[in-house]
Amino acid sequence: MFPTAIASLQLLPLDGNGTASDLMQSAVDLARSGLPLGTGRRARRRAPLWLVVAAIFVALLALVPLAFIIWIAVQTGWETVSALVFRPRVGELLVNTVLLVALSVPITIVLSVALAWLTERSDLPAARLWAWLCVAPLAIPAFVHSYAWITMVPGLHGLWAGVLVSVIAYFPFLYLPVSAALRRLDPALEDAAAALGLGPWRVFWRVVLPQLRLAICGGSLLVGLHLLAEYGLYVFIRFDTFTTAIVDQFQSTFNGPAANMLAGVLVSCCFVLLGLEVLVRGEERYARVGSGAARYQQRTSLGRATIPSLLLLVITTLLALGVPFVTIGGWLAAGGADVWRFDEIGLALGQTLFLALAGALLATVAAMPMAWISIRAPGPLQRLLEGCNYIVGSLPGVVIALALVTITVRIALPLYQTLFTILVAYALMFLPRALVSLRASIAQAPVELERAASSLGRPPLQALWSTTIRLSAPGAAAGMALVALGIMNELTATQMLAPNGTRTLAMAFWSYSGEIDYASAAPYAFIMVAMSLPLTWLLYVQSKRMAGR
């Protein structure tokens, strides 16, 4: 990545008196002068005050739903809280949720790493086509996956059904960062290990896999948070998790304490995931200044493993893409022209596009300060603030929505059911998606370029804009695409917070599928997939550009 990133920087004029070439020369001069460019722990932990203030503001805003749960618990009283939490039903939900995450995440890691290695590092036939097909399942909402599988296999229910559909629906979230990391690795490191006598498998385990740690940790955390917060997927297959139970409780009692206490247990599960991710990720540096290797990694010959490798990709594609497309096509054919109500579809399409674009932009801007601090100035405060941003990602949309409903009704009534409120909800819900993408991208942008820009007299904001923000633009675009995908598929928060008259594609699909009118729901599922495909293509292209390809 770095030869391409530095070369592109040299072509971009900078504001003020300097140019990109001046910036690079300044970096060289600083290195020769012996100044600490990245080795000093104290220098590495400094962060501009305005970035810290912005990150704290976003983190406090992200804590609003959690504060809402705590406030309800305090009002409810300890005796009632303990009676609601320590009961057999909560134990059943906890076992279901833990088993779901414990089984789905490792399977997703193994599958994603295997697919990424095959498409990026082997001589697999039609590797580019298979790489795109591994990203394409992102275009299909998770509840559409479940809708398709229930149509195809009506008796598909329970834990293993949840694991199957979860892995199929969410493995691209891990495949994308892992494949991008594989493309950016310096092949000289693997050549050196091979020259020391290590075989291909030992080179992979000792050299390649450790360098994929940041991508695997970030992607796994994202998948785990989605599993904790997912609702529609598990309703179709009739598998009870904390989220489905919370929604059922809220629908029956609206703002009952039982649902809030279940949400509190769900937050505790999020803390466990955050702790594991922090423990495994560590604080190693993943960027360096230098030309690296001016060549691509030589692809490994599969030999006799070519047929089994192709079989793995074919089966994955059929399960992740074939089943949904066949099911949707079958329902469209069964419904005929009558299911295409173009007046309803046109309104839902326009509203969905607007909300997705506006929410994605807001979430990406909100995630930028925290992403920069996470990489450039790690420390106890950073860990705390970053954890606050991830907590909200583990909460189901209905909890976030009810928290904002309560606040707007009691404190800021003019904001109730307005565009502002629903966009804030989207930014909070999908902040982890933008944060993970930005964090991985900023980690690959050398901090020395920012310091060199500052040495040329740039103010902190201009130095940040001229270097890191420009180099991390592909990651920002990928994060926006991920957030937009999530907003287009979001249901519960949209139903509660959207202004009167709002009807998105997901809301229309859920309305018809809830009435068991699968034929009328099929056009909305088809349009959601068709809208999401360009965004998944953008994710694929940007991941290639991050590697200079």
TrEMBL record:
Q: Keyword Transmembrane on this protein?
A: yes
BP terms from Gene Ontology: transmembrane transport
GO CC terms, sorted: plasma membrane
- Specify whether Transport is a keyword of the entry: yes
InterPro entries the UniProt entry points to: MetI-like (IPR000515), MetI-like_sf (IPR035906)
UniProt keywords, alphabetically: Cell inner membrane, Cell membrane, Membrane, Transmembrane, Transmembrane helix, Transport
Domain named ABC transmembrane type-1: which ranges?
94-280, 349-539
- The lineage's top-level taxon is Bacteria
Q: Give TM segment ranges.
A: 49-73, 93-117, 129-150, 156-176, 212-237, 257-280, 310-333, 353-375, 387-413, 419-442, 521-541
Q: Give its localization.
A: Cell inner membrane; Cell membrane
Gene3D superfamilies referenced in this protein's UniProt entry, alphabetically: MetI-like
Q: What is its main location?
A: membrane
Q: How does it sit in the membrane?
A: Multi-pass membrane protein
- Note the PANTHER family from the entry: FE(3+)-TRANSPORT SYSTEM PERMEASE PROTEIN FBPB 2, INNER MEMBRANE ABC TRANSPORTER PERMEASE PROTEIN YDCV
Which family is this sequence assigned to?
Belongs to the binding-protein-dependent transport system permease family.
Protein's name according to its UniProt entry: Iron(III) transport system permease protein
Source organism: Rhizobium loti
Origin organism lineage: Bacteria, Pseudomonadati, Pseudomonadota, Alphaproteobacteria, Hyphomicrobiales
